[in-house]
Amino acid sequence: MLARVEWQATLFAENLSRLGLLRLQPAWPLNPLTVQIHRNHGFELVAIASAWLAWWKREVRFIYSAYDDSLSFNVLDDSADVHVVWVDLQHYGAAADAPEFADWLGERLHFLRNKTRQPILFAGLGMTKQTRTLVAERTAGLPGFRLADLHAMTEVLGPRMFDERKAAFTGTRLSETACLACARELACHWLPALLAPRIKAVVLDADHTLYEGVLAEDGLKVKLTPGHKLFQETLVQLRESGVFLAVVSHNEARDLQQLFESRPDFPLRWEHFSAAAVNWEAKSLGLRQVAETLRIGMDALLFVDDNVGELAHAVADIPSLTVLHAQADAFLTQRALAFYPALWTWGKSATDNLRTADLAAEDERARIQQQYTDPRDYLRSLHVRIGLGRARTADIPRLHELSQKTNQFNLNLSRFSEIEVADLAQGPASRVIALTLKDRLADSGMIGLAAGKLEGQTLVIVELAISCRALGRRLEDLMVSEAIRMMRTDLPAEHVVVAHRTGPRNTPARDWLARVSGQTLPPEGRVAIDALLCQSCCEKESITLEEITHG
C-alpha cells in the first residue's frame, strides 16, 4: 500500500511524463489482463496505460492486429479478456460523415460481437457528434459493448490533440499529450468500468482531506482552498452518480457537523454523507460501521485519508480495503479521485439516482415496523409495490450489475457478464425475470433478478440475486415465488430447483434457502423449492404486484 501511495504523484500529475511513468515498477502482486487491439492506426504509444493498470493491480498484455481499415476481425485471440477497436476515422475521408458509414461500422461491430464472448470497447478518433450518435443507435442494446468518447478529449486539448508531423513515425496523428491522456482514460475509466464492479462508497477523513487545517485547533475557520473546493465538488458529482459518501474522522461528531452546517462555501453538505463514524476509535472500526450502515462489503469502499499511517493500519486490519492518499496538493488528490479505477461509470442510470434516497428511507421503515406486530399490516402501511417482468435489452446492464455486485442475497454467485445475461434472457429454453420494488417512502428501482434454464422437466434457477437494499421487508419469498411463476408460464416444468454455492458473504441467502427448502445445505449443489411455490410468508393481499412487461 505504501509503495502504491508513492506512485500517485506521477500517475495523477497535471502534466504527465512518459519517462516518469516508465520508471514505475510495481512491487506488489498483479493479476493478468490480456487486451486485443484491433486498429487502423498506431496504439503503441498509448500502451503506457500499463502503468495505471499496474496501480490497479493488473499486468496487461496487449495483442495487436495489423493495420486494417476494413475491420475484418479475421484473427481473434482466445486469451483476450477484452477487445479494443482503435480506429481513426480520418482514414475514411468524407465518407465517415455519411449515414452509410455508420451502417457499415455498426455491422462490423455486430460481427465482432458475434465472434467473441468478451467485452468490446470502440474508440473512434475524429468521430463527429453526428456520427457518434448514428453509431450509438446502430449498436444500442449490443451486450458488453461500450463507445468511448474521444470527441470530448479533442475539445479539451484543442490543437494539442494532434501532431501530424510525427504520424509517419508513430503510426498515429495523436500527439504525445493525447497519447498519455488516452492511456489514462483507458486504464482508469474505460477498462475498469467494463471489467469490474463499481466502487460503491467513498469514505473520507476530514482534517487535511476535505479542507486545510485541523478542526480541533482551527475551529470553524479551517480553510477551503481552491483545490479542496474542487475535490468537494467532485465528491458531490460522485454522489449524484450513485456513489455513497461517508466520513470516518477523529473529531467530535457535533463539532464536525456544525462545521459543515456553518460553512456555506463548502460544496459538500453534511446531509451528503450517508453514514458517519466520527469518534476517537480506530478508523478500521469506523469503516466497518460504515459498511454495515450502507449494507455493502469492505471491498466496495474507497478510503481517503491524508495520514499514511492511518491508511496502513486500516489496510492491515481490512486487507480487501482500497485506499487513496489525500496529499497536501488537493488538486492532485482531486485528479487521483477522478481517475481512481472502478469509480467512473458509463453515464448515470435510473437506479444510481435512487440509491441514496432509498437508504435514507431505511430508518423510517425501521421506525414504522416497530409499530406493527403483523407483517401484513406493516407492508400495507408502506404501500409496497413489487414489479416483475421479462428482461428487456435495456435492462441487461443493470441485471449484469446485480449479478456482479450483489453479495448477501446471491445464491449461486454466477457473476454473469452482459452477454451471458442476454443469452439467458433471449434463449428458447431460458428466462430472466427483472424485479423492481417501491413503497411510499422511496423507489428502490430494479433490485433483483431470477434466471432459469429448462432441463427436461425441471426448471433450474441458475442465478437468484436481490440487492441488500431490498432486504429487511420480508418480501424475498413472494418476489422469488412470483418470478418463478412468471418463468413457468413460458417454460412449463414439473419441478423447480435452485443452484447454490457458498460464498464469503452470502449467508443471508443460504439461510433463506435452507428455510424455504427445509433442508440443510451442502457447500454447493441444487435443492428443490417446490414448497415455496405453494405458500408465501407474506400474503399477496398485503402488497401490490405489477407486471413490468414494457409492452
Which characteristics define this entry?
alpha/beta; Rossmann fold; Aminopeptidase; 3 domains; 7-stranded mixed sheet; 38% helix
Low-confidence stretches: none
* Total strand segments: 17
Task: Classify the beta-strand content into a percent band.
Answer: 15-25%
Q: What would you give as the CATH superfamily of the largest domain?
A: SGNH hydrolase
Major beta sheet summary? 7 strands, mixed
CATH class of the largest domain: Alpha Beta
Average pLDDT rating? 92
Strand order of the largest sheet: 16-15-14-13-12-11-17
The secondary-structure class comes to alpha/beta
Structure description:
- The protein folds into 3 domains: 2-195, SGNH hydrolase (Rossmann fold, 3-Layer(aba) Sandwich); 201-338, Rossmann fold, CATH 3.40.50.1000; 372-547, 3-Layer(aba) Sandwich (Aminopeptidase).
- The chain starts with a helix and ends with a strand.
- α4 packs across α5, α6 packs antiparallel against α8 (176-195) and α10 (226-240) packs parallel to α14.
- β7, α11 (253-262) and β8 form a beta-alpha-beta unit.
- By secondary structure, it is an alpha/beta fold.
- It has a 7-stranded mixed beta sheet with strand order 16-15-14-13-12-11-17, with helices on both faces. The protein has a 5-stranded parallel beta sheet with strand order 2-1-3-4-5.
- The protein contains 21 helices and 17 strands.
- The chain has helices at residues 2-11, 18-22, 50-55, 99-115, 129-138, 150-157, 167-170, 176-195, 215-218, 226-240, 253-262, 283-294, 308-317, 330-338, 355-360, 362-369, 375-382, 396-405, 418-426, 476-490, 507-517, and strands at residues 31-39, 58-67, 82-88, 120-125, 145-148, 201-204, 244-249, 273-278, 301-305, 322-325, 385-390, 430-438, 443-455, 458-466, 495-501, 524-528, 544-547.
